[in-house]
Amino acid sequence: MRVKAFHLALGSISAPPSAPTLWGHLAWWVRYTQGEAALIEWLEAFRHDPPFLISSAFPRGYLPRPLLPQLQESDTERRKALKGIRYLSFATFGRVIREGEKALLESPELKEKKAPKATLATQTRVGINRTTGTAQEGILFTDRVYWLGEREWTVYVQLRREADYLAEALAHIGTFGYGGKASVGLGRFEVVDTQEMDLPEAPSPTHYVTLSPTLPKGEGYWALETYWGRLGGHYAQAETPFKRPYLRAKEGSVFREQPTTGLLDVTPEPAPEGGVKIWEYLYAFPLGVRV
Predict the structure, then answer these.
(1) Among the four 28, 74, 115, 254, which has the fewest Cβ within 10 Å?
(2) How far is residue 282's CA from residue 279's CA, in Å, rounded to a whole number?
(3) Would the pTM of this model clear 0.70, i.e. be above it?
(4) How far apart are CA 279 and CA 139, in angstroms?
């Protein structure tokens, strides 16, 4: 698949960037820079014929491990090591989607422990007096954050129509912060490079692996999670600041039929404004796999 890659330098963050949340940030960027009418037009395009597909972010040069039938490994240490591999280099990914999990046995991710990881840590910060702007004595907060290391992370976009605003919009998001706790400094990133490239796919695929969360449908091998996201932009101060919860298949899930899905209505009750609908981006980002 031909894609445009956006390489990001990330620091501490509340969670590794996911496609639905990145798309939500892009929607708010359209609203604040081009106005509400432009946002409505942009949303209508995604409801019927999306101008692009966007992936979640992964370590540069790596993709999520496809959820395929696992190897029966008798060695305890090697079984634990295999279980802990979350990301595969392009070369290893290309072998796995053609040969299955047996290709991992000779991979550098297993033999040399080269698979990158997102490390969960804690970060302590002081409470701020909103009146004086100074630290409050004896008030500390501890947040759970992901430290993504020195490695760059990459978001992939499959362009179906021209969208030359993406680099500017992503840079804007990086300046103001991605996801939760952006107001206290988390989620900052910089777009350090872009390039056009091809992602590996299996010829004559029997299944498809997704690089973005999507709705589970049909047959396949899925990792499921219940997601209950917060509203963004000025809706974060709404009476009900949470979207309706839903069940989704995570990145790396594999489907027998090529998945598509679309936008999901997750408007809470009551809605943040009369007549407003809240949409969640759940288009799959499929790559062909042979199982």
Answers:
(1) 74
(2) 9
(3) yes
(4) 37
Question: pLDDT tens digit string along 223-258?
Answer: 999 998 999 989 988 888 999 999 999 999 999 999
pLDDT digits (tens, 9 = 90+) for 137-175: 766 666 666 666 667 999 999 999 999 999 999 999 998
Q: Where are the alpha helices (DSSP H) in the chain?
A: 19-34, 36-48, 76-83, 90-99, 108-111, 166-176
Residue ranges of the chain with pLDDT lower than 70?
119-130, 133, 138-150, 180-187
pLDDT at residue 165, as a whole number: 95
- 287: alpha, beta or left? (left if phi > 0; alpha if psi -120 to 50): beta
Q: Please, are residues 178 and 24 in contact by the beta-carbon 8 Å criterion?
A: no
Q: Report d(CA 198, CA 177) in Å as an integer.
A: 29
Reported residue count of the chain is 291
Place of tokens 């995570």: 250
Q: Can you tell me the distance from the alpha carbon of 88 to that of 94, in angstroms, rounded to the nearest whole number?
A: 9
CA nearest neighbour of 287 among 247, 248, 258, 246 = 258
Amino acid at 199: L
Rg (CA), the chain: 20
Q: How many CB atoms lie within 10 A of CB 276?
A: 10
Q: Phi and psi at residue 129, in whole multiples of 5°?
A: -75, 115
